[in-house]
What does this fold into?
Amino acid sequence: MGRSDCVVLYNAASIVEIEGSEERTYPSTVLREEVIAVEESLREAGFSPYVLSVEHFSRELIQTLAKLAPRFVFNLCEAINGKCEFEMCVAGLLDLMKIPYTGSGPMALGLGLDKFRVKKLFQASGIPAARGYLLAPGKKLSARRPRFPVIVKPVHEDASLGINSNSVCHTWAQLEKQVGYVHSVYLQEALVEEYLDGREFNVSIIGDGDPEVLAISEIDFSGMPEGEPRIVSYRAKWDEESPMYRCTTPMCPADIPRRLENRIRDIALRSYRCVGCRDYGRVDMRADARGALYVLEVNPNPDIAPNAGFARAAGAAGYTYTKIISKIAQFALERGAKVASTVYAL
It folds into this structure.
């Protein structure tokens, strides 16, 4: 294996498509460009990384990690055993093995994949979140009609899976159809939220203990084709040949007044801390027609590829890619040093 002082741990992207899903596999969903970029940045920063791909929990995985005995793991695992909801278990394994790792812990990673639970947590904490409710498979829609328009999402998916051109519903019939789509294809509860027809912001944050908001990004929907909802759907995020991809342009840094910027930063930091994120993360929020801001979700493990939004925000804030990766690695090393000093003190 050679002499390595850290491990870049990742899962290869799945190319298995869900039967009946409109969200098919695109080239950008398969490539894990951040893996090579993180490895190269760590080498440039003076580390000697060992790149390790993992698909399933196994004895071999534990033995390999134990044999390498890395100073830290740069955790890029977004799923394991083919399920994104097991992402938190990778962090849990590293905790059990007493190996420091980058990114959020199991609790924050688990919360990040439960949009409704996070929404309730925000409401209890005084953080503005879009109003919504859950509909379980087999449960009929309430006779009480919702206030349209609404947006329908799978409650436990990542990367905009289950969000498409039909997700914004203006009628009862559209709502029934889209809820049925989530139930039958994704086999989980459907989250029905009020649709906020205002500006959308992505807020990238770095830090553990004293987090820093990087440059704020705004999605420009002005060129969206007629009839398409002004949302970042799965195709808008991943299908580079689609008009939706071309017409959801990130503007970073966003051209916004200082007062609005301060409000966005405050809400983002409160949300990041509330979920328990550390090292890096992204908070997505949107305004209603009157300009009031609401948090859509918190992503404790966003894409950190060089061409993704987090790296773009870091660059606008004055960080090189190598510097931001090195900074994230340092957070893990510092946590490891604290644990070691406590053990040796005993």
User: Anything to note?
Assistant: The first helix runs from residue 27 to 30. The chain has twelve helices and twelve strands. The chain has three domains: 6-103+324-345, 131-194, 197-320. Residues 6-103+324-345 form one domain.
